[in-house]
Specification:
By secondary structure, the chain is mainly alpha-helical. It folds into two domains: 31-109, no CATH class; 118-238, no CATH class. Helix content is 79%, strand content 0%. The chain has helices spanning 12-19, 31-45, 50-75, 83-116, 119-146, 157-183, 185-190, 192-209, 213-238. The protein is flat. 12% of the residues are buried.
Length: 239
């Protein structure tokens, strides 16, 4: 990725920090990182440092087994099963239990998102996905160009990157605004007289920026302000 694209993407970690919600959280499958680790070990084992990699791997395996065997002999002398077989069974059991814990944690985090997500936030998350996809597309185009295909040169690339920087700033501002309004919605409703002017200001910002694409992103987040304002009117009419 070229230097001007570095840091432009809104990562999952940054998105979760901005929203204070575990959005876009994926279930960790232990098999996947294990496969990646094994593939890296095999790749290195085939290289010039293969002997070192094999030695380190065997040392870790043997030391783990020896430590396990010592613990069994000291604290579980009543176990008649061969220690090597018990070591394999225990390793598999730890993996299964860990996977179950990761699953329940993921379910809990997903439930938290579904209980707190708003319509505005859904739209903003979709905009973030679209924004990151544009950056990925430019990066792929750059790689194709670097491979010797000058015909795919992106015209006005510098202007596009500058526009992406502005879009990122607006997305971050919109996400922060949505979070503030979402987390304080009940208080704002109960203290409507304190926030009437602020909501009017937010509405004015929405009207003044509605003609621009960047303003549209902000408007999606500020829509929640109008929803709160409408709820205030409903409460006042009931009183």
């Amino acid at each position: 990725m070229r230097d001007d694209l570095q840091g432009l993407e809104i990562s999952q970690k940054e998105l979760q920090k901005l929203t204070n919600l575990p959005v876009n959280d994926e279930l960790i499958i232990l098999i996947h990182p294990t496969k990646r680790l094994l593939s890296q070990v095999i790749k290195r084992a085939k290289g010039p440092e293969g002997a070192t990699v094999v030695f380190i791997g065997m040392a870790i395996l043997v030391s783990s087994y020896v430590t396990f065997d010592v613990i069994i002999r000291l604290f579980a002398q009543w176990v008649t099963m061969p220690s090597w077989l018990l070591f394999i069974i225990s390793s598999c059991s730890v993996g299964i239990v860990t996977q179950l814990l990761l699953y329940f944690l993921w379910k809990q985090r997903s439930r938290t998102v579904s209980q707190n997500i708003t319509h505005s936030l859904k739209i903003l998350l979709n905009d973030v996905d679209r924004y990151n996809s544009v950056i990925k597309a430019i990066d792929i185009n750059d790689q194709i160009e670097a491979a010797g295909n000058p015909g795919v040169l992106l015209k006005e690339r510098k202007k596009v990157v500058e526009a992406l920087k502005l879009t990122k700033n607006d997305l971050i501002r919109a996400l922060k605004t949505e979070r503030i309004l979402r987390e304080n919605k009940r208080f704002i409703i109960s203290k409507s007289e304190l926030f009437a002017d602020n909501l009017a200001t937010l509405t004015a910002i929405q009207v003044s920026e509605q003609a621009s694409e960047h303003g549209r992103l902000l408007n999606e987040a500020l829509q929640i302000a109008l929803d709160v304002q409408q709820e205030m009117k409903s409460l006042q009419s009931q009183g």
